[in-house]
Design brief:
The protein has 114 residues and is mainly alpha-helical. Helices cover 59% and strands 0% of the residues.
């Protein structure tokens, strides 16, 4: 699902360049914002803060809520078990209905046939 309208996603190279300019060249956030064409000084400030807390890997991990893989696998297994159970139940029910109707057993005798 994309972000809000007008939201800009900056490439990894730009984020790393902003951090390099901040630490190695000692540029201010305003200078970096202007040089790289970032919309807000706060964005550069946030990148620097994230980099300090978690290192370079913070920019490479997926964005958003992680998928619930384990829950989905468990749910699929449960559905497969339910499906197998319903198939068995359906087969037994069908056998029961056929037995009640006496389908498959002949009620004709030799007298009724010509």
């Amino acid at each position: 699902m994309p972000g809000e309208k007008g939201m800009v996603h900056y490439p990894l190279k730009m984020k790393l360049e902003a951090i390099r300019l901040f630490y190695e060249e000692g540029k201010t956030q305003a200078e970096i914002t202007k040089a790289l064409g970032v919309r807000s000084d706060n964005r550069v400030k946030a990148w620097v803060r994230q980099f300090l807390r978690e290192g370079e890997m913070v920019f490479t991990r997926p964005i958003g809520r992680p998928r619930k893989v384990k829950d989905e696998v468990a749910h699929i297994k449960q559905l497969e078990m339910e499906n197998a159970l319903l198939k068995k139940y359906h087969t037994e029910l069908r056998k029961s209905l056929l037995a009640k109707r006496n389908i498959g057993s002949s009620t004709t005798t030799g007298k009724n046939t010509k």
